[in-house]
Specification:
By secondary structure, this protein is α/β, with parallel strands linked by helices. Helices cover 53% and strands 12% of the residues. The N and C termini lie far apart (54 Å).
Length: 297
């Protein structure tokens, strides 16, 4: 049986590689993005260009979206020119990181139009999106999961979290808080070590064979901080958004976030200094300035 036509809204830094993988897997695609530079490579490979999210949802029964903020997701899903207005779509898969609150609102709004929401944030960055090695967290009705799992498996390893809207978002926020926390605390420790006279590369090597090893010491420091490139591929603005969402959701549930709140403040400082579009590894540059050292190796 031929693969179904899929819709894809938001084919930028993360969505573009994922849409490309769907084309590689033989899925016909109809795509929309506000930036033609994002859609041009996919159209050149055979994707059909739509005029709006509603136009995508007028052609495809299953629509995937990958968008930067909760407000944009809500507008694309439920707005007057959004997926809910398309008329043909019956499933919308949200690959964005929006938090459980927004996911619940979107699921309820789509349900009024007879559309099932699949909450499916991904983790692993642009490299994971290109390679198909993302962690793909999913919450939705089990029957819908069984239908969309082969599509989502194109992107990486699936983790079904349950039927409740927003469960996958909670898992994603927990992960992203910990990733940012690892970056902040490793930057502090590295700045201290370098100021004391340790070689940055030697200190990272020591940490990585010891109990302090973490995602920042093993990946972000060797790849983007020690070389001084600060180009890991995830923006400060998005990390700040994710950590804010996580802390807000936790506090609303009565879960204290003492360390999380401190990480949120560090990201606020980094964004104020380097801008929302900067790479979030610039957290280390904040510590460098405060400590009066350069963490290089």
């Amino acid at each position: 049986m031929a693969n179904p036509l899929l819709g894809f809204v938001g084919v930028g830094r993360m969505g573009g590689p994922m849409a490309s993988r769907l084309l590689d897997a033989g899925y016909p695609l109809v795509v929309f993005d506000t930036q033609t530079a994002a859609t041009d490579p996919l159209v050149a490979r055979g994707a059909t260009l739509a005029a709006s999210p509603a136009d995508v949802a007028a052609q495809a029964e299953i629509v995937l979206v990958s968008l930067p903020t909760p407000d944009i997701v809500k507008a694309v899903a439920l707005g007057p020119d959004g997926v809910a207005a398309g008329g043909r779509a019956r499933v919308m898969i949200d690959l964005s990181t929006t938090g459980p609150g927004a996911a619940t609102i979107v699921a309820a709004g789509l349900a009024e139009k007879g559309i099932v929401a699949v909450d499916s944030p991904v983790s692993g960055g642009i490299r994971g999106a290109v390679a198909g090695t993302l962690a793909v967290m999913v919450s939705c009705p089990k029957a819908t999961y069984d239908e969309v799992a082969p599509i989502l498996a194109t992107f990486g390893k699936l983790f079904y979290t349950g039927e409740k809207a927003g469960l996958a978002q909670t898992a994603k926020l927990a992960n992203n808080l910990m990733a940012a926390c690892a970056l902040v605390i490793t930057s502090e420790a590295m700045a201290m070590g370098v100021k004391a006279g340790l070689d940055a590369r030697v200190l990272v090597d020591i940490i990585n064979v010891s109990s302090g090893r973490n995602s920042a010491s093993q990946d972000k420091f060797p790849r983007a901080i020690l070389p001084g490139t600060f180009d890991f591929g995830f923006t400060t603005g998005l990390s700040y958004k994710d950590v804010r969402l996580c802390v807000d959701e936790a506090e609303a549930m009565g879960v204290p976030m003492v360390v999380g709140a401190a990480v949120r403040q560090m990201l606020a400082v980094t964004q104020a200094k380097f801008g929302a579009g900067s790479d979030f590894t610039n957290i280390a540059r904040v510590l460098e300035e405060w400590a009066g050292v350069e963490i290089r190796g």
